[in-house]
Amino acid sequence: MKPEELHLLIKEGEGLTVEFKERYSPKIDRDLVAFANTKGGYILLGVDDAGKVVGETLTNKMKAEMTDLARNCDPNIHIKRILQIDKAVVIEVAEGDEKPYSCSSGYYRRLDAVSQKMTQKEIRLLFKNAATVPFEERINKEVSFDDISREKIRVFFKEGDISVTKIVPQDILSSLALSRKTSIKNAGVLFFAQKPRDFILQCQMTLVAFKGRDRIHIYDRKDVQDDLLTQFNEAIIFLKKHLNIRSEIKGVNREDIYEIPLEALREAVTNAIIHRDYSMRGTSTMVEVHEDKVVVTNPGGLPEGLSPRSLINISVRRNELIADMFARMHKVERIGTGIKRMRDAMKSASLPYPKIKSDLFFTISFQRPAYSLKETKGSEKSSEIGSEKSSEKILKAIKADKYISAKKLADILEISQRAVEKQIAKLKAGEKLKRIGSAKSGYWEVI
After folding, report:
1. Would residue 40 be called left, alpha or beta, if left means φ above 0 and alpha means ψ between -120 and 50 degrees?
2. Per-domain residue ranges for the chain?
3. What is the pLDDT of residues 274-290, one digit of tens each?
4. Which terminal residue of the chain has fewer beta carbons within 10 Å of its beta carbon, N or C?
5. Percentage of the chain surpassing pLDDT 90?
């Protein structure tokens, strides 16, 4: 490794394949095991958590101790190199061929930028999946570094608050574990290819808004056939476009609040991208907006032996490299807390927990607030009474301010703007309300 390669690793920060440590300690065996159980990587001694080089000196005694620690792991761990580069010590650990590995204190794996102790269920799943090579790890023989977009790399660094002056695609993809020598992995294609679908046809996300509660009448659709960051950004824009919003004054500031917490929806979209099975041809990640719910679906269900309920305490990722990239861009919290964060966000907004279903596809469904009440006997009658009360309040508010907007009415009645518009349509049809002038500059007249 050259000094410039080391400096690039430090700039990019800790992640799935990079760990910073200020000083050497025998507890480093946990990190050796974690890297061997995941994708391999680098342990940099003499670098603090903030990426500042504080210095560490490699001695023969230290090198011998590390070699012994690796040899005492079960099975033995292969350390590729131990080098002194400038003021840092670089330890390169190979990904293991005999997973899972353990040290004296247990089994560990790499989860984003942390070496985390594994549960018994996670160990069993690692045993089961050790023989298969994930789609993201496979070399894509059709793509070359000429097909990689420097602009997309630049955007990635900007999202991650990483300052890099010189962009050399081969060096950068190598440092992020997205390439191997002169070959590019599928994960590298999904993030940085100029046209990802030229090489991976199923690299797309479909965004759809339906009229009503059935998947029949489409009134807005967008197919995003680009890299994974673009898919994420377009999905959030689409959701913002089609969800109701209200405003609250807090102190001297106005805060816009979406009917479903954006934090929960962001987690769901990121979860779908990270956990999708990209080897399933002819499929697409889906984001659907219905009248009564928002549904996010990705191809590839949970690994055998896992249930939706177990996701609160266990994090098993189909695509470690993709997860690491989103963590580096601060699009997802580390340590696999996505499902819990979604539930917490919905609870804080006094909304039902999202419903999770897993078969060949993994689906998360969010109920929209306007339809949060369960239907029971007599619900039609209570709905009519509620509708009448809303109509009365709307007429009263319009008498007080004939220029009032549907959005303002929604805030006053504490219902969705769509519900207000439905009530107004009924009042107009019943000849109780009339619009004078245009929709933009006119006013209401109570008949």
Report:
1. left
2. 3-129, 145-198, 205-318+328-371, 379-446
3. 999 999 988 999 999 99
4. C
5. 55
